[in-house]
Structure formats: structure tokens, C-alpha cells
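Possible regression after last week's pipeline update?

I re-ran a chain I had predicted before the update to compare outputs. Posting the input and the new output here so someone can diff against the archived version. Not blocking, just want to make sure nothing changed silently.
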Amino acid sequence: MGDDYELSPPELTADRILTLTDPRFTDESVAIVTGAASGIGRATAVALAKNGLTVIATDMDEDGLAETVKIADQVGATGPIETADVNLTDDTAVEALVETAAELGQLRYVANIAGLQHIDPIEKFPMETYDLMQNVMVRAPFLLTKCSLPHIREADDGVGAIANMASVHGHVATQDKPVYIMTKFALRGLTQAIAAEGEGRVRSFSVSTAYVKTPLVTKQVPDTARERGISEREVVEDVMLGHSRVKEMMEPVDVANLFTFGFSQYGQHLDGGDLRWDGGMTHTYE
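New output (post-update):
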């Protein structure tokens, strides 16, 4: 695709990670991060560990999780990262994940980041893929929330937060991503439902970005080109960045920093809200 369309993010380095002072950001506080073997999930697990939290990083890619731990060591993370190979479509495994997290310290934070994509119009969309995407991206976050809430409320101050990775596709729709769009709208609804029941102590927020330099995005490019009958260059230039005012994709660490801020004491009044950092994509038009 040429040098102007480099989709791989640069190496994650310590100077790009937001670090904050927060009395709860210690290794006694535990954060669950799903999808932690790559992309946004990996960057978030590393960023939270860099902020001193104990992180339980989960994914089905064991090699990817090992690389996440390696990167955390390289950036000087002071909080430990424990890894867990968990199939998010397995209720028993999800429930066991939460119990394991609670045994590591005081469970306070959950980052529901794991996701997948499939490019097809509605009439061609395979229902087995529909079920998988709904289970991983809606049902699993709900179950993780259900299981985690009692543990978060057990803290001496009852304070914690649950965050969900939404998207601009949780605000607007584009062609050939019907189920992804449905799941992201659903996650914003879950976010608000958690806030309604969290009594201001267990907060919830979502993060909505445009295209981020992740493997999920990279894999979309040839599929979108095929489905729309255009070149890969046109996918990036016209489809992905065409409506954005900022003509540069975010990097995973940029998104991880939003999770860190939202979990921290500086996000105290972020409850039920959505952090929409999309380069102007959904706020402007021509």
C-alpha cells in the first residue's frame, strides 16, 4: 500500500504511556483486561501495569499474552501482569477468571476490549459469525460485569469502574459491518446501565474511537476492498479516513491512555459517558 499507509503502530515505549497519581493505583488493586494479546487490549494492560496496578490479561493467544508481559517489562511497569487463556464464550471460564482476579487483590477495574470483525452485507452475513460476535462482544462483557460487581463493591470504599470498548460504529453506521455496529451500540447501552446501578461509586464509561492501528483494522483493509470493489489505498484514504478531519489513525497506546484516565480519580465524574475521540469523524460533515 506504500509508505504513506503504514498501518502498523510503532513500538510501545514508556514515554507514550500516561501515568497518573492515584491512591488506588497500587498492586493491591486488580484490573481485568480482555483482548490483551494485541492491539488496544495489549496497550491497555501494559499502561495499567505501568500505573502500578495488578493486571490479569486475558486472551486465547498465549504467545501474544507472553509478548504483552515482555513489553510491560521493557517499559518498566511496576505492577505485575498475570495472564489467563480464557475463551470468552465459555461462561464457566469467564466466572473463573473473575474469581482468579479477586484472589490477586481487590478487584476494582474491568476493561472489556476483546472484539472481532467480519465484513459482509446483511443478506450475506453468516449466522454462526453473528452468534460468535454477539457472544464475545456483548454477552461476555455483561457476564464479566455481573460477576465483577460484587467484588468491586467489597472494597473498603466500594470504588471501581467498568469500561467498554465501543467505537464510532456505536454512533453511526457504515456498510458491510452490521453485527459490529450492533455490538458497539449494545456496549454503550451496557455502559449506561452499569452507571444507573453503580450509585456513583462503581462507575462505567465507554471509549469510542475511529480507526486505530491494530491487527483488527489491518485485516479489514483487503476484505473491505474486495466487498466494495475498490483498491486497498482507496479503503484507507476514502473509507477509513475520508470523513475524519485528523488524517492520521490513532495508535493503541492513545486509546489505552483514555482507559487509564477514565479509571483514575481524574475521571470521577465520567459515569455512563462515552469518550469519543474520533478525529472529528462523527461531529463534522461536508
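Follow-up from reviewer: compared with the archived run. The chain has one domain: 21-209+250-275. Marking as no regression found.
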